[in-house]
Each structure stands twice: as C-alpha cells, then as structure tokens.
Write a structure and sequence with these properties.
Blueprint: H1 15-32, H2 34-53, H3 57-88, H4 94-131
Keywords: ATP-binding, Cell membrane, Kinase, Lipid biosynthesis, Lipid metabolism, Membrane, Nucleotide-binding, Phospholipid biosynthesis, Phospholipid metabolism, Transferase, Transmembrane, Transmembrane helix
Membrane topology: Multi-pass membrane protein
GO molecular function: kinase activity
C-alpha cells in the first residue's frame, strides 16, 4: 500500500518505497500488538544486560539471533491471526482456531529456546559477578 495512495495495486517502484511500506508494517505491529511490545521491551533489556556483562562477540551472535527469531515468529503469528480473521470474517472457525494456536505455538517454541540460550549465556556471567 502506498503511503500517499492507500489503493496501490502495483509493485513498488523504488527501494525507498518498499522500505517505507516495511517500516509502516513494523510500526503497526508495535502499535497494535501488545506481545510485540513485550518482546521489544525484553529485547532492549537483554541488550542492556549484554552490554553491562560484556558478552563476547560469539555470544552477541546468539543473543541477536534469538531476538531476531522472536520478532520474526511474533510477526508471522500476527500475520496468521490477521489472515484467519480476514478469511473467517472474525466468526469462529475450528480450523481458524487451530491455525492461530499453531502460530502461537511457534512463538512459544522460539521463546523457550531463546530463554535456554539466554540462560546459558547470562547465568555463568552473573554467577561470576556474585562469587567474585
């Protein structure tokens, strides 16, 4: 959708136009989706903790991959929910419920693995601070 013309029906003509649409989509998710705001807030806290604990470059790769993975899975969860609502007209559908539950399950799986990786990185560093 073009920013000036809400009825754009053709492909974007420039990279800037594509970037503007993508930025609009990200902003909309953070504005409308509470879980995206929660993930964003937690990502900021994790980044601050990583800076304070001076994690290694290798650990940064893992932390950033987990943050990116969480934001992407939450994005696909939001897309799935919106598509189900669009198709069903927001009326109850057993299949629609299964689709929404599976998309939310994907977020949960990513969150569990991200938490496990975070614990592996941060617990030893915090432990070292406590005992020294």
């Amino acid at each position: 959708m073009a920013l000036k013309d809400k009825r754009q029906t053709e492909k974007n003509h420039t990279f800037i136009q594509s970037l503007a649409h993508a930025s609009h989509g990200v902003a909309r998710m953070f504005k409308q989706e509470k879980n995206m705001r929660v993930h964003g807030g937690l990502a900021i806290l994790v980044i601050l903790l990583a800076i304070v604990l001076q994690i290694s470059i290798f650990e940064w790769y893992w932390v950033l991959a987990c943050i990116g993975g969480m934001l992407v899975t939450e994005t696909f969860n939001t897309i799935s929910e919106n598509l189900v609502d669009l198709i069903t007209g927001k009326t109850y559908s057993e299949l629609g419920k299964h689709i929404k539950d599976m998309a939310a399950g994907g977020v949960l799986i990513c969150a569990i693995f991200s938490a496990m990786i975070g614990l592996c990185i941060f617990i030893p560093k915090i432990w070292n601070l406590i005992i020294h």
